[in-house]
């Protein structure tokens, strides 16, 4: 029975990086892939990065969509297509810019809405923790919001710490893989129940025919 391509998808994970202006979305993607922090980027369109990683002893084809969507999004349609494309999400804000923190709840709501489920793997990433002097959002506020929205939370500095960037990404890939497996198990269970249903129906039809 067809599983809607899920078996093929188990080794292919698509992540989307969302967040307000200048919070460090591109810096995070580039840092994860190249291990390097590059100060300035100039791109006005979304970019998809592709790479391979071994996660939990399995080679994963990873695609990461670096969006240019602002808090409210360029258009609702674009944000919808980003969300429908992704399997897992990083919602970023900068600890130095409160307006980016204020975007988080709305982006999470949009993900829940377009995915039609509350189980989508999502990490909230507070960036620029190296800029303590310019801090506008406290760590506890970020953690409390992540708890409320049931998301994993990381506070990090893309500029200063590659290892935390790497573990945030890797953990999200693991959560996506777990979600795939749960989906696959649910589909197998449904398919078995359907088979039992058909078998019972056939048996009932046969015994009725014999009575006649
Ligand atoms: N101090 C510091 N600066 C950072 C960090 N991460 C990113 N930046 C800087 O923040 C600015 C914006 O980074 P980008 O990666 O372009 O942010 P973005 O979210 O992709 O930007 P837009 O897509 O244009 O909204 C750049 O000047 C980066 O060098 C960080 O961890 N610490």
Automatic annotation (TrEMBL):
Record bears the keyword Hydrolase: yes
Entry EC no(s): 3.6.5.2
Entry superkingdom: Eukaryota
UniProt keyword annotations, A-Z: GTP-binding, Hydrolase, Nucleotide-binding
GO molecular function, one term: G protein activity
Catalysed reactions, as listed in the record: GTP + H2O = GDP + phosphate + H(+)
UniProt xrefs under InterPro entries: P-loop_NTPase, Ras-related_GTPase, Small_GTP-bd, Small_GTPase
Hydrolase in keyword set: yes
Stated family: Belongs to the small GTPase superfamily. Ras family.
PANTHER family found in the cross-reference section: RAS-LIKE FAMILY MEMBER 11
Listed name of the protein: small monomeric GTPase
Lineage start: Eukaryota, Metazoa, Chordata, Craniata, Vertebrata
């Amino acid at each position: 029975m067809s599983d809607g391509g899920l078996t093929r998808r188990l080794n292919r994970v698509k992540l989307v990086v969302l967040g307000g202006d200048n919070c460090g979305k591109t810096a995070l993607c580039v840092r994860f892939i190249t291990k390097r922090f590059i100060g300035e980027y100039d791109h006005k369109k979304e970019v998809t990065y592709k790479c391979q990683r071994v996660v939990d002893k399995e080679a994963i084809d990873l695609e990461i969509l670096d969006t240019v969507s602002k808090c409210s999004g360029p258009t609702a349609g674009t944000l919808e297509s980003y969300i429908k494309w992704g399997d897992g999400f990083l919602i970023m804000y900068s600890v130095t810019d409160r307006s980016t923190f204020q975007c988080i709840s709305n982006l999470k709501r949009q993900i829940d809405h377009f995915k039609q489920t509350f189980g989508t793997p999502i990490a909230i990433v507070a960036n620029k923790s190296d800029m303590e002097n310019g801090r506008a959002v406290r760590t506890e506020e970020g953690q409390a919001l992540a708890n409320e929205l049931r998301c994993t939370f990381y506070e990090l500095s893309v500029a200063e710490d590659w290892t935390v960037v790497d573990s945030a990404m890797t953990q999200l890939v693991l959560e996506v893989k777990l979600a795939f497996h749960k989906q696959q198990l649910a589909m197998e269970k449904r398919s078995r129940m359907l088979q039992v249903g058909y078998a019972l129906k056939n048996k009932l039809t046969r015994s009725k025919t014999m009575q006649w």
